[in-house]
Specification:
By secondary structure, the chain is of the alpha+beta class. It contains 4 helices and 4 strands. It has a 4-stranded mixed β-sheet with strand order 2-1-3-4, with helices on one face. A hairpin with a 2-residue loop joins strand 3 and strand 4.
């Protein structure tokens, strides 16, 4: 899960605390999920131009990538949608 943001705006502090609770909710989380922040100037152009909700604004944007492929994008600090996306795409313990 990557929190995309503008340089002047910074990562979403509200969701960052919730990341911790999500991380510890899964067995062997260190092998199954990671959370990152990326400001606009380090996002590759092919990813940035393909954002589902258009250019970044001060509104938080989150995306799930699996093996380099974007699987889901969440617009806004909507913890429920972030949690649903993680549940949908987190690898099983067998993977």
């Amino acid at each position: 899960m990557i929190d995309f943001h503008l340089a002047w705006c910074g990562a979403c502090n509200i969701i960052e605390q919730n990341y911790r609770s999500l991380y510890f909710a899964y067995e062997n989380a260190e092998q199954r999920i990671a959370f990152y922040n990326a400001q606009q100037d380090v996002i590759p152009q092919e990813i940035y131009s393909a954002l589902k909700y258009g250019p970044l604004t001060c509104k938080p944007r989150f995306a799930i990538f699996i093996e380099g492929e974007k699987k889901e994008e969440v617009d806004g600090a909507d913890f429920t949608n972030i949690e649903k996306a993680i549940k949908k795409f987190i690898p099983s313990l067998d993977d």
